[in-house]
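#lab-general

N.A. 3:47 PM
ok so I finally got the sequence cleaned up, no stray characters, all 568 residues accounted for. can someone with queue access submit it? mine expired

B.Y. 3:52 PM
send it over

N.A. 3:53 PM
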Amino acid sequence: MENTVQMSVGLKKKQRSAPSPFYPKGRQVDPKALEQVQNLLEKKSRRRDLLIEHLHLIQDQFGHLSAQHLAALAEEMKLAMAEVFEVATFYAHFDVILDDKTPPPEITIRVCNSLTCELMGAEDLYVRLNKKYNDKIRIVRAPCMGRCETAPVCEIGHYHVNKATIKRVSEALKKGQVHPEIPPYKNFKTYQSDGGYSLLRDCLANKHTVDDLIDILSASGLRGLGGAGFPTGQKWKIVRSYKAPRLMAVNADEGEPGTFKDRTYLETDPHRFIEGMLIAAWVVEAEEVYIYLRDEYPGIRNILLEEIKIIEDAGLADHVKINLRRGAGAYICGEESAMIESIEGKRGLPRHRPPYVAEVGLFQRPTLVQNVETLYWIREIFERGPDWFSNQGRNGRKGLRSFSVSGRVKEPGVKLAPAGITMRELIDEYCGGMANGHTFKGYLPGGASGGILSAAMSDIPLDFGTLEEHGCFIGSAAIVALSNKDNASKAALNLMRFFKDESCGQCTPCRVGTEKATALMEKPKWDEKLLRDLSNAMTDASICGLGQAASNPLKMVLDHFRDDISFK
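B.Y. 4:20 PM
back already:
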């Protein structure tokens, strides 16, 4: 024992005294990769908040993010490699390949596996595409693409194949269609000829006061239409009450499965949204506005880039700087504080509150956060008067709602209908009834997180505050209709898998809870007591709305669709 200790001490002394070569810590920067990154960025700013934008540039150019390019970007932006890596791996749309000898195939086909697409045969399509193209083309499952009215949907590069079949996908591949289609839309000239931007010009010329605009908007009853439903006029007042400088952020990241209303409005009449945005920025005296747009909407991005340049050249945005930012595939960034984190170039982790973003938001400044559709209605309300909007509605409710309707209805799409309309009325009056051969069985009143109700509860008014007593909420008014040919427990499992994949991982109740719930729901027989205990823990202890609402579909299926479940 004594000899062993002496030998060990002698060895350590020898090791300390022996000279050793110097090896720098961390991944070394490849000169070629650094030059490529520098050429891509050119004269663009290296500010920290542009990290995600720069990651997009690299992936657009090379088809993936290699270890060499990540190290080069970290060097160029003076960031730790860990910071760049954690952001790149957080977002689903970034293909991070650390083994640089095996980059992904040149073409990737993403098959949407959201609930509506699954109802319409997306899983079978995924299997058949894999069988047909084998290793030549990468086939991956992807979350909702915001095109539920044309399910099932595939994406080849940035080209979307609606109502996808093997034949349609093959035809798109033969034509080399990988770029987004730009649909016909109302451009600046047409919009202005119809009276567009008159209200904004009057505001900029001080023909209206800020108080007058807030009063009119408050009288109309317009609320945040991204899901929270907070009164818009009141929000403007709150943001204005905090000391300048102020900022504004627009949530155009409608990632809720079943939601596609914002996409529809931006694809058809983008200037109505832009004018509302510029008016709101004028009211709260925002120095800059950041539009956070879904990466699944590349065609809209091209539209906005072109049309924003036109209005800037026309002098209509002299009072505010407009920034267009791309999301990167993270449902959690629909939560306002997570969106702000992402705009700042970070992982989309929801912030603890208070303080709220109206006081401490983007770059620690007071920030007005608005949804696309909310801004879309501003011009209409001011031109027609607040009563025009507030007098719409049924069953004692006020206003209009844009319902994104998909699933087993004959005519899916965005349906502009009175607030408070019932599901039965919506199907019969706006959707042409149920699809042929299908009998109404149940529905999701508020997308993936809004719960699932049975057909027996189809006479509940659809609006803010009407569904909560039933364990549901309307959210962004994403309606998915289920029929007698659908199993509600399988629908709930699809939604729980979505939440498991989209959890940001910040808090244990959501991160572990969604994974555990998915595993339990995949079993042939459900343990009801364990599932209810787990869902209660997720609801009570999760940091943000994702974890708090993730078990809503599960609880509703246990309550209303017990015939679709096998219990222990």
